[in-house]
Amino acid sequence: MIKLYWSPRSRSFSAIWLLEESGLPYERVLTDITTGAQKAPEYLAINPMGKVPGLKDGDAALGEAAAICAYIADRYPETGLAPAVSDPLRARYLQWLFFSPSCIEPAIIQIFTKLEVPPSTAAWGSATQTFDVLDAALQKGPWILGEKFSAADITIGSGLNFAVRVFKMLPSRPSFDAYLERIVARPAFQRAEKIAAG
Question: Which residues form the GST C-terminal domain (predicted)?
Fold first, then answer.
């Protein structure tokens, strides 16, 4: 049985949403980060960074929300959450799957902290560039890869949801609004929101 180690109102949301989309049976293991449960040796064996989410699937253990999304989508291809390795669309899928942790999250931090980083040295370029690139990609829709919803929409959708809907740190754009409307309408997203709220 897949075990997801999570905590309410945390970065666990993406993993919860992914597992809800997958239709796979899984067990949620509450990890109370307010008491430091994520620093216990047993948990550090799953995610040595001592953060949630963490996942165990038999002998496999890993942390990091995007990695969990990639693992489940590949380990369980019957979920249809990732293009096959032989599919040319796989290249863009991987790019977008990791765009949220490598570009959206740092861009949000840059906006929140008003951190000035020269775009030539920032791995994400700049917050403006990050959201301009995402805007252009989402105008093609309905999903980040076109007609097919994938685990990449879970990482992108989670990041954009927090930036625009939850924290209102990012001015909305028509493409963002339309994409988020489709995201929020998904039953698995709605179930994940209820679970993640605690």
Answer: 86-198
